[in-house]
Amino acid sequence: MAGKRSKHEFRANTLPALLTVGPVTLVMVLLIAVPLIYVAVMSFCSIDEFYNVTFDFTLENYVRLANTDYLKIYAQSLIIAFLTTIICILIGYPFSYIIARTKSRKKRILYMLVIIPFWTNSLIRIYGWRTFLGSSGLLNALLIKLKIVSEPIEFLYKQGTTILGMVYCLIPFMILPLYTAIEKLDGSLLEASSDLGAKPVNTFIEVILPLTSGGIFSGSLMVFIPCLGYFFVSDILGGGNSDVIGNLIERQFQSGNNWPLGAALSIILIIVTLILVKIYQKLGGDMDSLGV
Amino acid sequence: MKRKKKAKRKKGLSFVFCALVYLFLFLPISVIVANSFNATTTKPYMSWKGFTFDWYIKLWENSSLVDAFGTTMIIAIVSTLLATVIGTLGAIGMYRYKFKGKALIDGLLYIPVVIPEIVLGISLLTIFAKINIPRGMLTLILAHVTFCIPFVIFNVRARLSGYDNSIEEASMDLGANRLVTFFEITLPVLAPGILGGALLAFTLSIDDVIISYFVYGQTKTYPLKVMESVKSGVAPDVNALSTLVLIGTILFVVLTQGDLFKKNR
Hints:
The complex is a heterodimer. By secondary structure, chain A is an all-alpha fold. In chain A, 74% of the residues lie in helices and 1% in strands. Chain B has a domain at 62-239: MetI-like (MetI-like fold, Orthogonal Bundle). Chain B has helices spanning 2-35, 54-61, 63-96, 102-114, 117-130, 137-160, 166-173, 178-207, 210-215, 222-228, 236-256. The interface between A and B is large, with 84 and 90 residues.
C-alpha cells in the first residue's frame, strides 16, 4: 500500500518538479555557483614559474592588492562609476519623465527609439565614438573646416571620454526603470498637489520624487556596478589613462597571466557588488525589478 | 495669456532637450553608417576621403567577417532557444512546487543580473580550463545560456504572478492529461512573458562582448573579430556590415510592429 502511494506521489509531484526545475538547477549550480567558489579558492593560490596555478594557501594576492598603485585605480574606478551614475540620473530623469508623460501615440515610437541603438553591438558603437572623436576623426575635421580650431584637439585618452562612453553604454539601464516608475505615477495625485497650492518644485520634491525613487535606485545600481567592469570602454576611449577595476582583471587573465591575482581582484569586485546590493535592499529596492 | 506662453516655452524646451538626448544616442550609429561609405584606404580609416560603395563590395570578399557574424547569429539563436526552454520550465516549476534548496536557486538567479559581466566571464574561464573543456562554440553557448536564463525566468515569473491555476484544473477535469494541458493551456497563457524573455535573451547574446571575450578560443564572434583590430584601426567593411544589420533590424521592427507607425491606432 505504502509503496503504491509513494509511486503515485513520485509521478504527481517529484517527477514534474524534477523535469521542470532540474535543468535550471544544473546550470545555476554548475556554471554559476561552482565557478564562483572556484574563483574564491583560486584567490588564495599562487603561481609557479610557468604561470601554472599551484594550490597552496596564501594571502599574498590580497596583500599585493593593497598596494598604492592598485588603490589608486580602485578609487579612479569608483569615481568614474559615481560620475557616470550621476550624469545618467541628470540626463535620464527629465528625459524619461518627458517621454513617459507624452500622451499621444508617439510615446511608443519614442520608447523604441531608445532601444534601437542597442541592437548594434556596444563595442562597435563605442568604436563609432572613437571614429568621431579621434584626432583625424569627423568632429576635428568639422572644427577645422569651420575654422574654430587650427590644430586637431585630442579628445581621446582622457577620463572624461571614458565617462562619456560609460554614460552612452549604460544610460538605457537608467532610462528604462525610470520610464516604468514614472509611467505608473497617478496624474490625479499631481493635480491634487497643485490644487492644494503646492508650487511645481514642491510637488516634485514631495510627491513625484518619493514615488519614483525606486526607479532611481534600481537604475543607479544597474549603471554603477557594470561601470566597474566595462574594460573595453576605457580601453578604446581612455587608452590606459582611465582604467577601471575591469581592466586590472582582464590584464591578469590575458597578458599578465596571473590568474590567482585576477581572482583576488574579482573577489574585491564581488564584495563591492554585495555591499551595493545590500544598500539597495536597505533603501527598499525590489530585486525583481532589476532583471526586466 | 502669460500662462499659455509659459507652457509653450516649457514645451519647446523639453522638445529641444529630448532631441539632444536622441542625437547623443544615435550619433555613433550615424558615424558608423557614414564611415561605411568612406573612401579612405589608410589606417586608422577615420578621415573622410569621399564617397564610395567599395566597402560593401569588399565585405563579400572578407569571408572571415561574415563568418564571424554567422557565428554570432548561431550562438544567439541556439542560446536563446535553450535559455527559453530551460528558463520557462524552471519558472513554472519554481512557481508550482516546493522543494529543498529553492531559496538557493532563487538567490543564484540574481547573480548574473547584478554581478559585473567580467566576473562571470573569468569564473567560467577558470572552470572550463580546470575541467579541460576546449574553448570554442560549446563554451560560448554554455556561457550565453547561463547569463540569459535569469532574464527569461524573471519575465515568465512576472506573467505567472497573475496566473489562475483553476483553468488548469478545469482542463484536467474535462479529461485532458497533464501534457495536453501544458501545451494547450499553460503555454499560451504564458506566451507573452516567454516571448519577452526570449527577445531579451537574444538581444543580450548579440550585444555581449565581455563574457564571450574570456571563453571564445578559436571561435570568434563578430564583436571579438572587431576587437582584434581596435587598436590599429577597424576597416570600414565592419561599418558596412553593421549598417546592413541595422537596416535589417529596423525593417524587422517595422514589419512586425507595423502598427507602431500607423495613424489611427
